[in-house]
Amino acid sequence: MKVFGIVGRKNSGKTHLVTRLLRLASRRGLRVSTIKHAHHSFDIDRPGKDSHLQREAGAHEVLVEGFEREVDLRLEVYRASCGQTPLAFDDQGILALATDEAATFAVRSDLPCLPLDDEAAVLDYVLARA
């Protein structure tokens, strides 16, 4: 089993990227399960919620957890329009940044910036490292 985390600030586009990655992975014949971190109480699989969108996009399983958990391999979704600094400034565990600002934005010299709108490039990066 390969495990990779997608992190980012609120409204940065994490769920949108994950659902696109799930659709692409499914088309490639991969079986993918997701774990959604919940900071609050929830009902799983309600239309419009992240877990429901992930299931519809092709996730084999969707698990939701509410405990503090770290995944060793993480990619951050970052949009400059969110108005906050990237988590990768302070978190050396983030291996890459999927961003809409890749051409002009560098967080750390060791951090690859992937085009947020190119799910094939993001999925290939994840699969090569997970």
Account of the protein in words:
This protein has one domain (5-129): 3-Layer(aba) Sandwich (Rossmann fold). The chain contains 3 helices and 6 strands, in the order βαβαββββα. Helix 1 packs parallel to helix 2 (50-56) and helix 1 (14-27) crosses helix 3 (119-129). By secondary structure, the protein is α/β, with parallel strands linked by helices. The protein is globular. It starts with a strand and ends with a helix. It has a 4-stranded parallel beta sheet, with helices on one face. The mean pLDDT is 80. The longest helix has 14 residues, at 14-27.
| Helix content estimate | 10-25%
The CATH superfamily name is P-loop containing nucleotide triphosphate hydrolases
Q: Provide the structure class.
A: alpha/beta
CATH architecture: 3-Layer(aba) Sandwich
* CATH topology descriptor: Rossmann fold
**Spatial arrangement of strands, main beta sheet:** 1-4-5-6
How far is it from the N-terminal to the C-terminal residue, by CA? 9 Å
Number of beta strands: 6
Helices and strands in order, then pairings?
Blueprint: E1 5-7, H1 14-27, E2 33-37, H2 50-56, E3 61-65, E4 74-78, E5 94-99, E6 113-115, H3 119-129
Parallel strand pairs: 1-4, 2-3, 4-5, 5-6
Task: Provide a compact summary of the structure.
The chain is of the alpha/beta class and 130 residues long. It is built from 3 helices and 6 strands; from the N terminus they run βαβαββββα.
Question: What brief labels describe this structure?
Answer:
alpha/beta; two-stranded parallel ribbon; 25% helix; 21% strand
